[in-house]
Amino acid sequence: MSESAAACPLPSKRDSAGACVPCESLDPSSLMSSVDLSAAVSAECPLWTIKTSSDGVNKLSRSYVAKNFVSAMKSLNDCGEICEALGHHADLHLTSYRNVEIVVYTHSVKGVTRNDVELCKKLDGEVKVAYSPKWLKENPAAVGTEVPKPLPKEE
Asked: For a tag site, which of 84, 110, 119, 120 has the least CB within 10 Å?
């Protein structure tokens, strides 16, 4: 088993021989069908949308507005640490100082695999965001993924 496969914590990324799939193979058979991808996004990572690039590559995208620049950068850095640990790198974008977009797909096979869905779920579960209050109010599906509010101090 290679070093990258041994370090891979996503169970769906290993084949029966223990190799990291598709990280170590350029096998397009690992791409999810449009039907399976739509079902997985709806059921498992509803904060994400499917985008198709001009060259026909499906990608998973999540956008949000952070409370401020520092909050946006913290969420991007947290995403980056997770992606680096997994060896599965998302495209991270920051515009207008607090508008964040995360784009996930498997570059080597030019599309979305099961690993990408797993990464999206992991990012949703582990990266807590200090959202813009207005954005959070307009996007109630994100409730529960925000930075917890401090408990009121007892007098």
From this structure: 84
User: 86 φ, ψ to 5°?
Assistant: -90, -15
Helix (H) or strand (E) segment spanning residue 95: strand 91-95
Q: For the chain, how many structural domains are there in total?
A: 1
Domain membership of residue 20 (yes or no) is no
- Output the domain CATH number for residue 70: 3.30.1360.20
- pLDDT mean over 50-56: 94
Structure tokens at 5: 């496969």
- How far apart are alpha carbons 22 and 34 in whole angstroms? 18
pLDDT in tens, 121-155: 999 999 999 999 999 999 999 988 888 766 666 76
Task: Give the Å distances, CA to CA, from 74 to 54, 85, 98.
Answer: 30, 17, 11
